[in-house]
Amino acid sequence: MVSGFQFPAQDWRADIYAALKRQHIIQVGYVPDAGHATLIQALHADPAMKVTVLTTEEESVALLAGADLGGERGVLLMQSSGVGNCVNMFALLRSCGFPFITLVTMRGEWAEFNPWQVPMGQSTPQTLERAGFVVYRVEHAAEAGAVTEAAIRLAYDSAQPVAVLLSQRLIGAKAF
Amino acid sequence: MLLRRDAVVILLADRPPDLLTIAGLGSATYDLAAGDDARNFYLWGAMGGALALGLGLARAQPSKRVLVLTGDGELLMGLASLATVGVQAVQNLAVAVLDNEVYGETGGQASHTAHGIELAAVARACRFREAVTVRTPEALGGLRDLLLHAPGPVLGVIKTAASEVPRVLPERDGHVLRRRFRRAVLGERG
Fold first, then answer.
1. Facing residue for B49 by CB, picked from A53, A61, A97
2. How many domains does chain B have?
């Protein structure tokens, strides 16, 4: 099944959606986020996707571990601030060898207006690496689909925690 | 007062073959391990994550019953997951809270439930179909029916004595526990 949602033309989020479908992602956890908003709309419109809106990102670390125990693949969509919310729960992944993939929209790095976003945004890559993640980064729209697909394959074929950082330059700095 | 281990034995006696069980860290894991089974998944960490993990499993295996067995302290750390579960209205998910009103692992400090915070009331406010609190052995039969058979999400708080029972320590290697559980549920694919 496919989403009834129509992406705008030339939208890199459509490439990410296609990569999720090709790699048999079924469960999605997300905390509402402007950078992921279009993708979230598309996923909600796809009846094959089991989408869970979270109160905090760490819920999804456990949620997707449970999905794996039941034989389903999943993805966590979050903003860089959410990475900090997950840190202790990330231990579950390495303790049990769970595959895990998260797509992280970055704040606090490219023309950021809100200084409160900078501390967590700037420490996001190191936080993930210290938690044992393989970290990819997408700077250009043309590579979003391919990087996402490679990251999912690494996560599930090699049972690793993997993060894809979608740079703030790619997403566009938030305007106030 | 109910003894936690006795309550778990009654809830899981002659367990149905399609019952999958997740135990939150601490005493709930030891209680579940007293009746070890490949369809049990024990958490030795991830405090606050047992319910969310049960939700992911329940959504992946809608034809199976998923029971999350945890303590009051573990559920309190992930209390907002009650709201997340309520949004999804998963029919095959049940939660049993062994509520001794203390943090037994860390020296018996009083938990929020010792001060009148009612977990069953929170679950009802989060749109659980039914959420009850039981205090007597006579109530456990009805609670078992609720947790194993009623349309979920449902939650039962079992008020237990704060006394310690002998610890039954299950496998600690999470990789082993994951593989064992997946094989039991998914067969060759696991």
1. A61
2. 1
**A-proximal residues of B, 46-105, CB under 8 Å:** 46-61, 64, 78, 80-81, 83-84, 87-88
Cα–Cα dist B89/A157, whole Å: 32
**B93-137 pLDDT per residue, tens:** 999 999 999 998 899 999 999 999 999 999 999 999 999 999 999
Instruction: Tell me if A59 and B47 make a contact (CB, 8 A cut-off).
Output: no
Q: In angstroms, how far is CA A171 from the centroid of its own chain?
A: 13
Read off the CATH number of the domain in which B155 is found.
3.40.50.970
- Check pLDDT > 90 for residue B1: no
Give the residue numbers spanning the domain of B82: 4-189
CB of A15 less than 8 A from some CB of B: no
Instruction: Give the number of A-B residue pairs with CB atoms closer than 8 Å.
Output: 119
Q: What pLDDT is recorded for position A159?
A: 96
Does the beta-carbon distance from A52 to B53 stay under 8 Å? no
Q: What is the pLDDT of residue A1?
A: 60
Confidence of residue A40 (pLDDT cuts 50, 70, 90): very high
List Cβ neighbours of B31 (8 Å cut-off, separation of 6 or more). Answer: B4, B5, B8, B23, B69, B98, B165, B168
Q: Specify the CATH number for the domain of residue A118.
A: 3.40.50.970
